[in-house]
Amino acid sequence: MKAASGLANFRRELFLQEVKNTPVWDIIVIGGGATGLGVAVDAAARGFKTLLLEQSDFAKGTSSRSTKLVHGGVRYLAQGDIKLVYEALYERGLLLQNAPHLVNIQSFVIPNYSWWNEMLYGVGLTVYDLMAGKYRLNKTGLLSGKKVKQLLPNINTEGLKGGVRYYDGQFDDARLAINLAQTCAEQGGVVLNYTKVTGLTKDNTGKITGVQAQELESGEIYHLPAKAVVNATGVFVNDILQMNAPATKPLVRPSQGVHVVLDSSFLPGENALMIPKTPDGRVLFVVPWHQHLLVGTTDTPLNQNSLEPTALETEIDFILDTAGKYLVRKPTRADVKSVFAGLRPLAAPTKNTNSTKEISRSHKLIVADSGLITITGGKWTTYRKMAEETVDEAITVAHLPETPCSTANLKIHGYFTEKVKNDSLNIYGSDRAFIRELINYEPALGQTLHPDFPQVQAEVVWAVRNEMARTVEDVLARRLRILFLDARAAMKMAPQVAALMAGELDYDLAWQEKQLLEFTQLAENYLLEPQIPIQPLSTTY
Predict the structure, then answer these.
(1) Which example biological process does GO assign this protein (predicted)?
(2) Total structural domains in the chain?
(3) Can you tell me the distance from the alpha carbon of 372 to that of 240, in angstroms, rounded to the nearest whole number?
């Protein structure tokens, strides 16, 4: 089973060997989410000796838990943040250009129940289109009520006046993260998951000279010298800042976003529903994603971080209630296939506030007196621009050779434009051919993992050999995305996934059992059981 082709330069054991053999790095990046991976790709593409360290799996936190939109931010335009929208629309265009296997043009429909809203949103979204310049997508247009009903078959038509259709980008966030890690390796960089930075090293003047890290599978400690160190740990940036200077004030304020996933029958077709203003001022999306519907999100300020945040009951109720006002068939808790929460690293406000509207969506780039470079805030769409600014800063701080950024036209690993209709392997882009080769070499790997899903055994083998998957969670949550689509189905797939992984990694039955226990406990947090109505107490005796 080892004969099929793969990616020769994306091997964890090779990266660990390179870590041991490299005397000094130009740039060490802490954090394997969107921002950190972007910085590592940029740095490696400029020819710098680059190492990225992630304490868990790539995109484990915020970067696998987004609304899956590559967008300029209609809401930010309404708030007057013109610069952010311009920047994001340009970056949206570059992502469509450089990762066409992962990024798609998505049609959004806003149903209007008043003539005023139709005019307001029609004008606003036309301006949004024009701001994209040469990267403009399809043209925004006004719709009749009949056309809205046609595009959104299950929409509530009571009082419906018409609607607006506009276009934005959609993608698979965790899959893009994996492809960025592979792109970094192709550019000569080294990336390691499950390697936690435990300390920063400094010289006698207090300047950063590198990091101390522990490879979590073996427990081995590494002392890694570097000319520049970048803190790109998202909602965990404050932890690294505390390592650098214990008295440092928090730089980010986490905000929680929750999504629920429904069967596609709640809104059949290819069009997404956009609800521009909910009762509490939020925006809500109902978006087709991997033959399911992704519904969200919330925006709840929190005071603590977690790799596995938990959805609040009020957030779940808000999503279901709001969606139910717009859909004829109203979703209930029993209809939810999966629910997941993520934390956004919003740049902290200068005053105490519980309003996330008062916390900037723009990114922040700061350099400590020690030379530690921290990049935080922002969003997936602008990851490349954030990375460019960060590496430019690292060149200045560490006196590295002046080398221009080249990522605006850098094709991301998997780049492929020739999609096969109804082929679930399209998401692998150019790697699809290698997975087909695996199946041809061993036909049993072409068997599906679950009768309701198209994913096959070969994808698990591929994820272990060529995408650095180390756990059942890595495969079912971030390589195949099943946990985020249907938690019960993921639990049913887990034993077979564990067995396939054990065969590839040469692990025993005890490892499989431990993995199954851990994954089952995790997956239960993605499930919603229908609430049993509380019966009133009897008033008769």
Answers:
(1) glycerol metabolic process
(2) 3
(3) 9
